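Go through this chain.

——
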Amino acid sequence: MSAALAGLARRRLARDRPALAALASLVLIALACLIGPSLTGHPPERIYPDVVRVAPGLAAHPRPDEVRPALQRLAFRMRVSLEEVVQDGDRVRLTLTAQKPIDLRAFRLLPRSGLFGEAAVRERSADGRRLVAEVPIRKRVFLLGTDALGRDLLSRCLAAGQVSLLIGLTAALAALLIGVAYGAVSGMAGGRVDALMMRLLDILYALPFVFFVIMLLVFLRAGLWLVLVAVAAVEWLDMARIVRTQTLSLKGRDFVRAAYALGLSTESVIARHIVPNTLGPIIAAATLLVPRVILLESFLSFLGLGVQEPATSWGVLIAEGSRAIESAPWMLAAPAGFLVVTLVALNRLGDGLGEALDPRL
């Protein structure tokens, strides 16, 4: 693609405001997924057992009515009895009793809960079976709520976005490289070689995707690598047909004949003339390929064949949310929202690039 055509495509794209809005949305989502988990204040894998399935909101937890139940659960794990709880602002004064002397090491459970800080012992009986301690309260805000284990859903969605976008870009890049090489070679070869290569594509098209994934389970464990291999192995087929069609229309042009007359090999003609002149359709198709890959990954993760714990993806979160849709609908709405916005933005950007790079316009 020449510099003049590239500049013309940029000007066309700059006038397409919906495509620019889609591009801005994708940049914001990518930045949020990249740096967001470190800014939320909640590690994605951190479990808060006392705030399970908390609804989205700006309220800080624990609320005043949640302090005593949370402390009672911790006291049970500490094997002590909670006699009195006096809350004063962001601090709470506890009176604990036990049948045996209270081991101070049990107070480590308080900061591990994530809602309370280190305890300071103020009074202790001579036999050690009764003591008074002051504990600071750590306020936590969960903008998108928490899941069934008490993990912050916003942090989980952003961390899942890293995996989903990585799978989408990596598998799409692999499919792009395979499809461009296969389609260019098939189109340039022509004749029986082209017919044989296209029949192989038809065979691969006829193979059901889920059946292919089940076959891969014989060699690979369910997880990230299975998704990458499965998606990259089938998503290059459309790209190969697009590049083959473009190559068939270009190989009879005068500049290709001139390249052969100058003594260039077929490999050089493909690399220096055929592929650069098909970049417009390739870029547009590649942009539309990424959302397809992300959707396939979500489908596999929904079936339990994709990303496995402790890693997560939008597909995994959607599968978890679908099982709790009645009691905690936000567990489904949050990751589904990220996925829908990303897919719509990628598709709209692909349409805009296709229009901007179309030489007929």
Summary: Strands lie at 60-61, 81-88, 91-97, 120-124, 130-136, 140-141. Residues 140 and 306 are 32 Å apart (CA to CA). The mean pLDDT is 85. The chain has 14 helices and six strands.
